[in-house]
């Protein structure tokens, strides 16, 4: 992890379906950093709802949020919060 990068792993409390994917996409769109969401060996840009849903992340699985850029830490924290509170 570089000084400009930040990452966190989250265990999902619920499946990553349309509603949390949409919340994640809206949150991700508000940052200038390059953000990636990883699960099961796949990596997507979390600003796309269908890409996020396409990961197939289910309750109890772990997803990793990575960001690099000027607001990377805030981006990771915000997206981790959305994921940790998914219903």
From TrEMBL:
It comes from the Bacteria. The keyword Transport applies. SUPFAM superfamilies: HPr-like. PROSITE patterns: PTS_HPR_DOM. Residues 3-87 form the HPr domain. Keywords: Sugar transport, Transport. The keyword Phosphoprotein does not apply. InterPro entries: HPr (IPR050399), HPr-like (IPR000032), HPr-like_sf (IPR035895). NCBIfam families: PTS_HPr_family. This is Phosphocarrier protein HPr. It comes from Streptomyces luteolifulvus.
């Amino acid at each position: 992890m570089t000084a400009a990068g930040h990452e966190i792993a989250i265990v999902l409390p619920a499946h990553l379906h349309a509603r949390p994917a949409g919340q994640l996409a809206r949150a991700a769109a508000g940052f200038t950093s390059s953000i990636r969401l990883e699960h099961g060996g796949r990596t997507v840009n979390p600003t796309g709802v269908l890409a996020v849903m396409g990961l197939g992340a289910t309750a109890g699985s772990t997803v990793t949020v990575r960001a690099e850029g000027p607001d990377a830490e805030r981006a990771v924290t915000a997206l981790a919060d959305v994921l940790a509170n998914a219903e």
